[in-house]
Specification:
alpha/beta; about 220 residues; about 20% strand; 8-stranded mixed sheet
Length: about 220
């Protein structure tokens, strides 16, 4: 079902322009677009040189905002390609007056356009679309194609932390990490009954747990 465009979306995005970079992807060739660098000046954005973490697919922003509140000495960039969803995250960060969260409206394919090499310590992949049909597997955010993009921006020994409710996607991701040369440090197939200290529950996670679904978690290292 198609999502209705939120009212006054353009005006609301403009009100959040100080914490947002919107990607100009007039070039539909993602690989070529990523080669035209427009690096985020993270030190200027955050006014410090604290470690940087990235959430890819931040949705309405619950995870990134609560995690940022818990970790004031860490900077967070939240990426979301659907502006109609991103506006909720932006406005939540504004309401909370968070100074360590910034947003990027772009697709994961062009992250290397905005991040210098070895600039991110952790990437979060929370409940990414599992895209279960075989023909879409190259678009899954843990496909080796994407893992190579992440490798380029992660620091040495940087980590990817993934959560999903989809067992097939979990198994696919485990194999992808291994194929791409990542080291799998941790796995969990029942996060509800094996909680991790400091791990914030996302909107989807709360819903899936209430439905009795298992939550899977992977920590992988470059």
């Amino acid at each position: 079902m198609r999502m209705h465009r939120k009212s006054n979306l353009d005006e609301r995005l403009l009100q959040c322009a100080d914490i947002l970079t919107v990607s100009d992807l007039s070039d539909k060739n993602m690989k070529r677009a990523a080669e035209v660098k427009e690096y985020l000046d993270l030190e200027k954005i955050f006014k410090n040189n604290n470690p940087v973490r990235l959430e890819i697919g931040c949705g309405k922003g619950k995870f990134v905002c609560e995690t940022a509140e818990q970790n004031p000495n860490i900077n967070f960039v939240a990426c979301e390609k659907i502006s109609n969803v991103l506006i909720d995250a932006l406005e939540l960060a504004k309401r909370k007056n968070l100074k360590n969260v910034y947003f990027l409206n772009c697709a994961a394919e062009v992250l290397a356009k905005y991040f210098k090499g070895e600039s991110v310590e952790i990437i979060y992949l929370n409940f990414s679309n599992p895209l279960p049909k075989e023909g879409y597997k190259k678009q899954r955010l843990t496909h080796p194609k994407f893992l190579e993009i992440y490798r380029g921006i992660l620091m040495p020994h940087g980590q990817i932390i993934q959560k999903t409710d989809d067992k097939d996607f979990y198994l696919f991701s485990l194999e992808s990490f291994k194929q791409a040369g990542y080291k799998v440090l941790e796995t969990c197939e029942d996060l509800k009954n094996n909680p991790v200290a400091g791990d914030v529950e996302t909107e989807h996670e709360k819903l899936f747990k209430s439905q009795g679904k298992a939550i899977y978690r992977i920590v992988a290292e470059v």
